[in-house]
Amino acid sequence: MEVYESVSELPENIQDLMNKAQQARKKAYAPYSLFKVGAAILLDNGSIVTGNNQENAAFPSGLCAERVAAFYAGAEFPGIPFKALAISAGSTKSINTQPIPPCGACRQSLSEYEVNQGSPVEIYFMGEEGKVVKSSSIKALLPLLFDNSYL
Ligand code: THU
User: Fold this and answer.
1) Which end of the chain is more exposed for a tag (fewer CB within 10 A), N or C?
2) What is the 62 CA–ligand 1 centroid distance (Å)?
3) Whole-prediction pTM
């Protein structure tokens, strides 16, 4: 895991990706938790796909930002590898400077793409501002992951 002091220290293409995650975060639909998350995925063909959390009055029917973005990428660009994922998250009640990692269910969903493409997906995550943490792969965030080799 690597820590950057701010977005401005990131490689230029990742700064752009994180800016898109931040824009997506602002458009999240999170009226229940008031916790907004934005995600942006850079694909191998140069396209960027974004997502944000979409909540629901029946709470478990909502979905996290990372899965909205990953499933959108899978739906729109099937088979195109993911190169990097940027995540920005925080409560609307205060400014969050703590880097927020993806939840376990999102790690599992994302691992499907990383395993299939056979190359690592870099993950960059942050709060609304401040430090950014980089993980070099999904696998690094989910040791002993369950994949299709067990089926
Ligand atoms: N959430 C995400 O979008 N991604 C995560 O990795 C963690 C949680 C969302 C789900 C819910 O809408 C809100 O944040 C509070 O849990």
Assistant:
1) C
2) 9
3) 0.96
